[in-house]
Every structure is written in C-alpha cells, then in structure tokens.
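User: For this week's homework, look closely at the record that follows, marking any run of repeated tokens, and judge whether sequence predicts the tokens.
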Amino acid sequence: MAIVLPAEWIKNWEKGGRNEFLQLCRALSEDKSHDSLTFRDIQQALYELSSHVVRGNLKHEQASGVLADIIEFREDMPSILADAFCILDIETSCLEEKTKRDCFTQLVLSCLYLVSDTVLKERLDPETLESLGLIKQSQQFNQKSVKIKTKLFYKQQKFNLLREENEGYAKLIAELGQDLSGNITSDLILENIKSLIGCFNLDPNRVLDIILEVYECRPEYDDFFVPLIESYMYMCEPQTLCHILGFKFKFYQDPSGETPSSLYRVAAVLLQHNLIDLEDLYVHLLPGDNAIIEEHKREIVEAKQIVRKLTMVVLSSEKTEEKEKEKEKEEEKTEKPPDNQKLGLLEALLKIGDWQHAQSIMDQMPPFYATSHKPIAIALCQLVHVTIEPLYRRVGVPKGAKGSPISPLPNKRAPKQADSFEDLRKEVFNMLCYLGPHLSHDPILFAKVVRLGKAFMKEFQSDGSKQEDKEKMEVLFSCVLSITDQVLLPSLSLMDCNACMSEELWGMFKTFPYQYRYRLYGQWKNETYNSHPLLVKVKAQTIDRAKYIMKRLTKENVKPSGRQIGKLSHANPTILFDYILSQIQKYDNLITPVVDSLKYLTSLNYDVLAYCIIEALANPEKERMKHDDTTISSWLQSLASFCGAVFRKYPIELAGLLQYVANQLKAGKSFDLLILKEVVQKMAGIEITEEMTMEQLEAMTGGEQLKAEGGYFGQIRNTKKSSQRLKDALLDHDLALPLCLLMAQQRNGVIFQEGGEKHLKLVGKLYDQCHDTLVQFGGFLASNLSTEDYIKRVPSIDVLCNEFHTPHDAAFFLSRPMYAHQISSKYDELKKAEKGNKQQHKVHKYITACELVMAPVHEAVISLHPPKVWDDISPQFYATFWSLTMYDLAVPHSSYDREVNKLKVQMKAIDDNQEMPPNKKKKEKERCTALQDKLLEEEKKQLEHVQRVLQRLKLEKDNWLLAKSTKNETITKFLQLCIFPRCIFSAIDAVYCAHFVELVHQQKTPNFSTLLCYDRVFSDIIYTVASCTENEASRYGRFLCCMLETVTRWHSDRVIYEKECGNYPGFLTILRATGFDGGNKADQLDYENFRHVVHKWHYKLTKASVHCLETGEYTHIRNILIVLTKILPWYPKVLNLGQALERRVHKICQEEKEKRPDLYALAMGYSGQLKSRKPFMIPENEFHHKDPPARNAVAATVQNGPGGAGMPTSLTINTAKLEESAAEETDKLKEKSQGTVKVINKTVNATPKVTTSNGNSASNSKIIKEKDDKEKSGKEKDKEKKEKIPATTPEAKALGKDGKDKPKEERANKDEKPREIKEKTPKSDKEKEKAKKEEKASKEEKSKTIVTTIESKSVTEKEREKEPSREKDVAKDMKSKENTKGGEKIPVAGSLKSPVPRSETSECEREQKRRKVDIHSSPSHSSTVKDNLNELKDSSTKHYINHTTPTLSKSKEREVDKKDLDKSRERSREREKKEEKDRKDRKRDHSNSDREVPQDSTKRRKEENGTTGSSKHSKSESPSDSPRSNEKEREKSKSKSSGKEKGDSIKAEKMEKSSSGSKKESRHDKEKEKKEKRDSTGGKEEKKHHKSSDKHR
C-alpha cells in the first residue's frame, strides 16, 4: 500500500506537515467519487499517523490535536480511527519493545474523548481495555460475554402447545369459530388473539396453523380471514405462512393420503392475495416436475403402442393371449395413482379465477398435460364461460335462443370480462390455447366460441371501418384462425360424434375463403393428430373403425354403412376420408357404394372431403402414369371418377378443385384435366365420347332437348342444380375463361413441353384428354352461361388468337356460341322493331342481324392469317365456315321422329301397365306429353332457323371464293385452313365439315371444284392419318365416312347423280384459273366417268391403308384401323380391294398378338366387321364399267391435283418398274386418257399449290410455282421415258412418280390385287414373253396414233425442257430432301422455293385449252394432251401421295394386243436395242461421276423389278436384262421412233443432267433408295401380282 504520509511532513510537522495532513484528510473526505477507495486512503492516513506516534516520531499530543481537528470531516471517522487502533493494538501486543506499547496506550488515552467507550470495547483486546481503565477485569469481561452469547443463540424460548395449554387454545378456537355475521372485524379478533397469546403464552406459529384450519372449514368468510391472516403476518416472519402450508401438504403425501380440496382452496386464495409466493409453495408439492415429464412421455409411448397394435395384423390364436395380458394391465392401472397436488392447486386457482398463477403452473408442465385432466379442463372452461359472458350475450346468442346467463365471479381479482372482440385477445384466446383439444369436455363452450367467431367474421367482412380498426381486425382474424387450428378442430376430434358441433363450426367456416379453410384442414389432418397422445389414439381408433366399415361396405348395405361412416366422420373426417380415398384408388368398384353412403355427412365434412380429394390428387409421391408409361394411372382415373360423382350428388364447394386444375395447367401439367372432364360430365351432363353412334351424333345436331334425350349414352337427368353450382363456382372465382385458355394453350404444351420424355401413346392420350375436356368445358359454358355472361367473358377472336395465343380452332369454338347468341338477340330486336310477319321479312331481318354481328368478325379474322391467304378465300367465307354449326345446316328430322316415337311407345307402355297407380300413370303421361311437345316445338324452331341460314348462305356464296387464283389453290386453302383443322376437332365438327362441303357444292358456289375437293380428301390420307391422335383419327374417320356417304349416294344412281351433280359447277372437268365457269355439257364429268373416279378413290384409300398397315409404326396402324372401322359402312365396296385389306389386317392380327395387344384387339375387331360386310361387296366391273366410251373416259385422273406422289423421288429409277407394271394397262389407259385429259389438264395446273393441309400458307404460292417447275423438270425426265413407252399414258406417268404405288393400283383395278400376296412364284418365261408381245403390240398400235401429236408437242417440249434442265437437278435434290424429311413418303410440303414463275403452268394450261378442241376429233391429239397432262400430273403427284389412275378394261387391251402384235414385234426389237444402248451410255456417265449414282439407281431398279428384293426371281442384274425391262425398252423404242427427235433431245438432256448434277442426284438417289427399300415389300408383292395377272391372261 502506498505511503500516504511522506517523512518530510513528520519532520516539519509544526511548520507545514500538520497543515499538509489536514488538507489531505479534507480532500479525501470531500471526494465522493470512489467511496471504497477514499475510505481505504483515510484508514491508511490515520493508521500511518498513529504508527509514527507509536514509533516515537511524533508526540501523542500533536497527534491527538490533529485528530481532534479531522474527526468532524466524516461521520464514520471515530469508527475508522477505532479500526486503526485495533490494528496497532494487535501489532504492539506482539512486540517485545515496551516503549512502543506505552506510546500506543498514551495515544489511545489521549484520544478517548474522540471515540466512544462502546466502540473501543467492541474492537480492542480485553487486556488493552483493562490497561486503559475501560473495564475492571478482563477475565470477568470474557465470562460475561460468553453468557450473553449463549442466551442469545442457544437458549430456546418455551411456548405452550395445545396439549399443555388447552384453555388458551379453546378460547382461540371459540374466538375464530363465532358467528361472524355481526359487526365483528378482523382487527378486533386480532387484538383478542394477541391477548390470548400473551395470557396463555401460546405458540404464535401454532396459532397461525389453527387460523388456517378454521379458514379451511369456513371458506365462505374470505373477506374476514384474508385480512386477519394478512395482519397477523406482520408479527411473523414472511416465510412462516408458506412453511406451515407446505407442512400441511406434506402431511397428505403418503401413498394413501388424499389432499382435501379445502386446503387447495385456502392455498389458492392466499396465492391470489399475494400472501405467499408460488415459487416458495411449489417446492412443497408433489410430484416433482421430472416425474410429471416422465409420466407424459410414458403416455405418448403407450398411445403409440396402441396405434401399433391396431395396425398390426393379429392372428386369432394370438388374440386371446393379447386380451388376457391387456386385462391384467388394466387391473394394475386401476390402482390409484398418487395424488397430484400441483394439479389440485391449479384446479383451485382456476375455480377462484386466479389466471396468472394458474398460467405459471401450466407453463412448468408439458403442453396440454394439465388440461388433459378433466377437472382442470372443466374448471378452465368455466373460467372462459364467465369471461366471455357479456360479449356472448351481446353478439353470440342466436335469435330465439333463451340461454342461461352465467353470473360473474365474486372475486375482484378474477380476469376482466370481455365486452368487445378486442378484449378477447387479452385473456380468453390465451385460456383457449391452454385448453387445446380439451375444449371437447365442454360442447356448450365450444358452441359459444364458434358463435363468437361467426359474429366476428360478420363484422370483419363488413366494410366501412377505419384503417386502425382494420389493422386490429386483421390481428384478431389471425387469432381466430389460430384458435380454430389449435383448439376447435382438435376438440372436435375428441368429441364423440357431435354432428351439431360440426354444423355449428361450418357456420363459421363458410365465412372463410377456401384457401384458409383448406390450410386449416391440412394442419388438422397432418399436424394436429401427432400433437397429443389422446389424439394419436383417436386417429388409430378411427382408422381401425374405418377399415371395419369399408370391409363390409357393398351396394346392398349402403344405408347402415353410410350411417356408420356419418357417425365416424362428425369427429374425424380427415382421417376417415383419407382412408376411404386410399381404398377407392385401389378398388374402383367401391366408388358407387361410397358415393351413396356419404349422404349422412355434415356440410363441414363435405368441405373436408373436397380438401382430402385435392390433397390425394396432389400427392407428390404418386406416379401419374402406369409403369409402362403409356397410360394414365388407374388411381388417378378412379379419383377423377369419384370426384365427378361426389361433386354432382352433394353440395360441395368446387372452387378449390377448379383452382387446383387451373394451377396444374399453369404449371404445364395436364394429367389432372381428367378430373375436370369427369366433373363437367357428371355435373352438367355433357358427355364426351368418341364411341357415339351415328344416331346419337345426329341427335347432337338438334336442339338442347333432343341432345338431352338422344345424344348421350346414359340419360343424364336432374343436372340443373349441379350444373348451376358448377357455373356459379366458375363465375365467382373467375375461372371460366382462364380454364378454357389454359386448356387451349396446353394442347400444344402437351406435345412440345410436357411430352418430352413420355411415350408417344401417352402424349396422344394426354392431348386427346386436353382437347376433349376443352370441347366439353366449352360446350358447358355455351349452354349454361347467359348471353351477357358469355359475351362479357370471351374476348374477340383476334384477341383470343393474337394475345392469348389460342389455336384458331379452339378460339372459334369458344366464340361460336357468342355469335349465335348475338345474332339471335339482334334478330329478336329487329323483329320487335317491325311487326312484319311475312317469311320474307323475317329472312331479311335475320340476314341484317347476321351482317351486323359478323362484320366485325370478318374484319378481325384478317389478322389471323397472312394477306396471301385472302387471295384464295374471302374472310367472309372463312368466318362463315367457322361460325356455323350442324344445328345451322340441317334439321335431324329422323332423330326427332325417333325420340317422339320412343315417347309414344313409353306412353303406350304406361297405359298397358296394370300395376302402376293411376295418379303415377297420370304424372308419367303428362311428363311424356310435355316432352313430346317440347321436341316438336324445337324441331319446328330449328327448321325455320335452318331455312334462314340457307337463305343467308345463298346470298353470301358469290363472295366466298375469289377468282384471284386457281381453283386448286382455293381448294388447298379451304382444306388447309377450314376442313382439316375442324374435322378433327369433334365428332359433330367432322360431320359438319362433310356437310359443309356438300352444301357449298349444292349452293353452286362459283370457283369451287367439288370434284377436286373430294379428290384431295380421299387421295392422301396417309399423312393426315399418321399425324392424328387416337381420338382425332376417330373423328377423321367420321369425316371420311360422311364424305364417302355422299359420294356413294351419287355413285349409286345415275338419276341422283344427274340431279345433284350433273349441271353443277363443282363437277366441271376443265379447271380455269379465271372465274369463268360457263362450259358446255361436254365440260361436265359424266356419270360413268364419275364412277371411275370413285373407284380410283376407293383404290387410293386401299393403297393408303395398306401402306399404313405395313409400316409397323404403332400410330399408323392404330389410326388407320380406327379410320377403317369408321368408314366401314361405305368402304370397301369393291371385292378385290376388300380382300387385299382383309389379308393385311389378318397379317397384323398375327404379328401383333403377342407384341401389342391393343393393336391386336383393334385389328381383330375390324377384321370381324370386315368379314360381315363381305357379302355386300361387289366385283370391280359392277362398281364401274371397265370399257368406257373413248371420249370423256378418264375423268378419273382428276386425282392429279393432290395426285399420288407416293414415291415422289423415285422418278427415273422407278420407270423400269412403272413400265413393267403399266405395260399391261397402257392400252386401256390410253383410251381412257382421252377423256381424262380435260380434267387432268385443269386439275394439274391447280395442283402444285396443294401443300400439306396445315402447312405454312404464306410460302405456298412460291412453293407451288417452284414445285410446278421442279415437278415439270423431274417429270419431263419421266415423260421422256414414258414417251418412249407410249403405253405409259397419264396414269402410267403419274405412276412414274408413284413408282411402286401405281403398279399396285393398276393391278388392283384388274381384280388382281388379292393375288398379289398369295402368289410368290416368279412368272414363267413363256408367260413373260407372251406378255411382252402383247404389250408390244398394243404399244405399237398406239404409237402410231401418238406419233403426230408427240412430234407437234416435242418442239415446245424440247424448248421447255432445255431451259429448266439445271433447275431440274435442283428440284430433284430438293424433292429428295423434302421427301426424306418425314422418314416415310412425305408429300413435298410448302417448303420449296424455286425461281421458275407460275407462267409456265399457265402456258401449259393455255396449250391444253388449245389442244382440248382437238381431243374430241382425233385420238392422236388425245395423246398429246396426255403428255401435257402427264407433265402436270406428275407435278401434282409430287404433292400428294397416293393418288391412282383410273383403270382400263382388260378386254380392250386384249383387242389391241391382237391387232398390233405382229407389227410391233419387229419395231420394238429394234427400239429395244437402241434403248439398251442408251441405258448403258447413261450408266457409264453416272459411274464417271463422283458418287456411285448408277449403282444406286441400278440397285433401285433391281429392287423395283424384284431383283435385289428377291434375288431368286431375278435372272439378270440390270433392269435392262430382265425380261420385263425388255418390254419396257421395246415400248420406249416404239415411242422413240414415234417421236424420235424429241426422244433424242431428251436423251441428250438426260445424259447432261446425269453427269452435271450427279452429286445432287446421288443424294437424291440415296434418298430414293431408302424409300424404295422401305417399300420394297410392296414392290415385291406388286410384282408377284403382276405375274399372276399375266397368268390370267
């Protein structure tokens, strides 16, 4: 310790040391900042001063003088000085130096007046005190202090206890037990008690104990005893009361002891009045907190074991043992558990309303542990009752209810009662949260709380409150939701099937938006049941009971089972429905009984069911596809079906489900559309099925009543309410249009986004599902929304397509009802305005209404397509086509008659029924009569409407198709933008499209070629079929069926044909580019030629079908089988085509039996139906005359337009084959061709435009021109060859294009097709020779006639050919690319662009027109035209695959053969040699080029001749060596001689081409090769067929 007094001060004490010391002490005394430090410094200073005196450095007088001065500086200065003396006393007493001790004694003596005696007696040693004279003897002093200490600390005070002083205690008890009702106060009694204690020397603690005992017995005198105890406690230590109470509780802690409730009450009151602390008392209570936690854990474990037992499968032998064990356990349990004093105290606190202390006790226990004891739960419920009473009386009591008011607690310290919702937040919500699921003990309180919630929601949802209030209300609302989640729903689970509570709760729940409700149900189902052991047990028991009921549920016991389900559902709907749904997903046959058994549910339960369904649907763990990845999972299908049934039958809110579907669509998932489909089907009665019969379809084209009666499989009745509910849900939540748009967009999403990794079959299924649901949903909206609602929600067509990116077909589908609504309302307005009643007036008004409504639509549609489109068809025509429906075009009279007759039969049956009571009879008859009247009225109304529409169309038709381009292009656009998209939209649309085409024909629409239109439709079905989904194929089949029906009707009878087609512009065979349609009768297609055309179409269909069946592709086979099944009534009609089909289908049956069972089933089904149709098939010669007159005969070649470009690329290569197959046919063809030419010329010009139906129309025009040129260039090559073979004729040339396909056709025409497959043996040489000779003969004959024309043409031809020679190569290349793109034979779609303008085609046209005149006069001219036509025709063939040529009769061929046989032989041999040379030259040229084109081509030729395909049959490697090719060469040589110049020039050209464009060609060839390989099987078959035909000959 630092020295405070420097030595200088002591030395110069008198001079300055004293003053320095005084200043130091003053400074230290005044320094208040650090008390402990200054205190120590003063002590140090005083000690140092004194020690200087002891050491003799300072005199004691000097020291005492200065000490006297500083003693006043601080109050405690004497004590500090005494401390310093005490230390020096100890130090000096140990020293041996006497002087120092003496100095010390003198110092103390001189300072006695500064420090009091008592302080010194405390601090100094007895010996020192004696020497100072403060005590007499130190020994006596010591003895005295020992005595005092003993008395103070060790001697016990003696009180009189009860036994010793019974009088005093008796008087005390009498004092406390007297009648307290008078003016006796606690103060008065306290004075008496004090007197008694003093008089009888009573133990004060014992007195306190007796006061508590008496209080226990007289609990009603709180106001007396509490102040008494409070006053008495002033005389005791504060802990005494707590200890006495603790002692009392201890007394009852024996295992057998039971703490009386009076003691709990006294303790509670004392706690409430803060006379004792809870923490002090709590430690005296048993059991300890650890024991409570252990017990809680044990309960949870037990609950889980119970669950495990219930879920375990127990065998019967084990069951008995289990039961015995359980009994023993229960007996053990019945032994009473020790008393829980903490809970007893808690209950007492709750009863007197001390919520604060009660809360703190509960906080020390596990959650809900306290309230799981019924007395506590009930006490807490009672407290809540009291607290909410005023508010409940004000807002909660239902009208008409009396109610029993609850009086408030007498206790002033109880929680304040709630007068407003805000007050509930203070205490009530908290109390309820502590109650948790145990509110179930008091259903009345449950109802009160729910009613308060309802009243609050009413206030919350009413507007007009201030911002601050709103915020408060928001907070309160979240509190209400929390209470619902934590208290109300768990409590409902523990209530024993209380349906009233469930309904009461729904009263509040229905005011919540469904999002909140579902959130609550989710918590209830997935969280709540795990929060408490009791709930865990309840969940297990519910599942157990649900299993029991579901095992026994059948259709027969629906009612009793339904009641059990109802009972079980009132308390635990989530668990029950979860189990029921899991069963439905496994066993779909449970759906009907379950739906029927749900009729005893409460509204809340229905809502929970909706949530459970959505949760089951959204289950992320479940796969939506079956393991094969090609079909939708059965669980999803079952759930969807259940959804539809349940939502229809019961009033369940749909918003959540619909929003779920919308959200799934937004996320790009379309699986769940299945649900929407089912819901709409069941609730609105709108069925979507591809399996509709034609009768049903016909009924669907009538009015609403007819649809309902005859349009659906199941008579769906009573959908009025359910469809209204569905409509309301859609409109209230604004889901009607969004769902439509999402579905329309998702159709493509299925393919391009969702489809990714999925199996093609599944993608098709999803696409169909999406599409069907859209059609169904749109139908529902159209029939259920009011006009205003619909128009308000559906935007205009351009907005739909351009902004919402809705596909056009879907956009028009949605808009169509709107137009119909608008037109009818406008029409009604106009009718009202003028009363004119004549039919003419009405029609005029109708047309005006249409113009008003449709004019903006005509404007709007222009933006949907590129401007080029509107050159071919007018926007008006486009809009008219898309806006009309079958209802507008025709009245289904037969359907109306059928339904009316059914009703008549029903009425007769009712009359004949003897058992039916008369009043029921009357009712039924009235119903039937009313229906009948409705139907007849509807029919009349529709008839008038149809007449008006037809009048309107009559007026419009002249503006429909513009004459800006060829008819062919017009047809292309019409098919591409109208027919194809719509015919696969729905079954009714398919029928509509067919009808519309017929209607346009009947209206004699200018610029519309019916012939071309039908030809396009029938000639190329491969691509269309291949690109359809399953349902689209079915609709396309329906469309073809209706088209065939019309064609068959015309084909069946000359009279009908003459009447309906004879003079119609649609059947002109000259197709001009201008609008001029006038033509003489000769320009019309006559009946016989029409029959040839129809045969061609049948043949085309056969070829396409066979092709599809042979691809091995799943989609092709499935779709073509579906289409064939649909068109079965009208096709096949010709026996040989039918047989060919039958064999192919039989082959499919064999091949697919093990591999693809669904294809097998389809094929077997079709095969069976086909066999049953066989008796109705007719031979070909009955179907059309095979020897038609020379003129006008081959109209059939109309095919050209979409002509069969089956194998577009195989031009040069296929000629070999072509020639071979065509040879036999050529004579016939030649003759027919004369007639055909006209049609062909026209059609041909038109064709190039065709493009694929959904191709990009913008590029069409260019493409088409190019195609023309390319085709021409490619085809001219062909022509050269063909010209060398006069026999090749237009058809044969088309064949050149079609390569393999054409031979097939011709054979088929000769009834030889069926043999094609059977005969696999090669022709014998003799036969071949014979055939060759015949062909030669015929060719020679023809060649003579042709020579002149060929020569005349050859000049122009040469010129034309020279120019585009380069382009030809390019075109070839392009063609090959195009064709290979699709993998199979694909028509060259609108993707080529060539520099050659269209003028060439027009030139051809002009030439054709010029030549047409000659056609009639001389046969030679006809061949010219043929050539010209071939050129064009080939161009057409390029586009559309399978178009075939008309067939020629055998008889004619034979005649010609005989005549010309001899002449021709010699000539043909010469020509043959030349031709061979040419070929070899050409081969050489090819081989010189970089790539080995020639090999390819020879290979291909070989293939076509069957050489590579079946080497057995081949005799020689190159086509030129084979006998058949020889024929061809002969033919060629003939043609060469007839048109030698031309032939030479062509040859030269060809050589040039082959060398210069060899690279391109090689690519081209390779692609061709691929194609041919693909079709090689077909080729072989054809060959065989050919051979067989020769044999016949």
Summary: The mean pLDDT is 75. The chain is about 70% helix and 0% strand. The radius of gyration is 55 Å.
